[in-house]
Amino acid sequence: MNITCAIIDDEPLAAGLLESYVEKTPYLELKGTYNSAVTAMRDIRENPVQLLFLDIQMPELSGIEFAKILPRETKVIFITAFSQYAIEGFRVNALDYLLKPISYQDFVKSTDKALEWFSSQMRQDAFLRDRFLFVKSDYKLQRVNLDDILYIEGLKDYVRFYLESGEKLMSLMSMKRLEDFLPSPEFLRTHRSYIVHMPKVRTIDRLRIVLDNTYIPVSDNYKDDVMAYLEQHTLV
Questions:
Q1: Which of 38, 66, 39, 60 has the alpha carbon at shortest distance from 52?
Q2: Residue 16 and residue 35: Cα distance in Å, rounded?
Q3: Alpha-carbon gap, residue 149 to 99, rounded angstroms
Q4: Is the peptide bond before 185 cis (omega within 30 degrees of 0)?
Q5: Residue 131 carries which DSSP code?
Q6: Residue 89 contacts residue 113 (beta carbons within 8 Å)
Q7: How far apart are CA 201 and CA 48, in angstroms?
Q8: pLDDT tens for residues 122-179?
Q9: CA distances from 129 to 7, 92, 123, 125, 139 (A)
Q10: Distance (Å, rounded) from C-alpha 46 to C-alpha 25?
Q11: What is the DSSP letter of 146?
């Protein structure tokens, strides 16, 4: 896939270096270079790019301030000469930051992170649109419809899908990968070993979830998330 990008840096030499790096990175497509956030504002709002290389220290409007008003679909890699700005940058959901002077090796490491993020987002968008996934089970790829899942149990390096039909599918994958991939809070982690399809829940018994005559525990680590979900769906 290609990633559209733009550069905002008030230092011409730094901006020029970034342009040269973008040109020799096959998956990047440069849409514009700007010497300030103010001059870039209209273009970025009317024609958003996927990725922005954004200098933090700039006159009139800092990179941090500009990042807060960007369209949600635009992700940021911050450019800075001072490492202390990195923490502040991550508070506005930056994908990464590059410390000046920037080597091409560091640039590619950072943009590879962006490529991985956008690729993952594309897969997840397709997954949420189509509402099914394929899982490896018994040396075959088995289709699992999201609406058929009751809950998922983690068993060391494996997970077991419990389906409404009564079928159980075992697959080699981690609970963490599933938790990150499945739509939340529709699918909610209730315990180190369990992810529950919450719309399928009919009974909560003393903060234990009852599904298909099975009592699924809610551990302390996930109790707040479960309680928040229940509060949103409870009439008192």
A1: 66
A2: 11
A3: 45
A4: yes
A5: T
A6: no
A7: 41
A8: 877 777 788 898 999 988 999 999 999 999 999 989 999 999 999 999 999 999 888 8
A9: 32, 27, 10, 6, 26
A10: 25
A11: G
Q: Provide φ and ψ at 91, rounded to 5°.
A: -70, -20
Spell out the residues 6+ positions from residue 81 whose beta carbon is closer than 8 angstroms to its own. 57, 99, 100
Rounded Cα gap, residues 236 and 228, in angstroms: 14
pTM above 0.85, yes or no: no
CB distance 146 to 198 below 8 Å: no
Q: Residue 90 pLDDT more than 70?
A: no
Query: Whose CA is closest to 170, among 187, 149, 152?
Result: 152
Cα 56 to Cα 9: distance, rounded to the nearest angstrom: 8
Contact yes or no for 23/15 (Cβ under 8 A): no
Please report the DSSP string for 167-231 in residue order.
-EEEEE--HHHHHHHS-TTTEEEEETTEEEEGGG--EEETTEEEETTEEEP--HHHHHHHHHHHH
- Tell me the angle at which helices 104-130 and 12-23 cross, rounded to the nearest 10 degrees: 60
pLDDT in tens, 9-21: 999 999 999 999 9
> Burial level of 108, CB count in 10 A (0-12/13-18/19+)?
middle
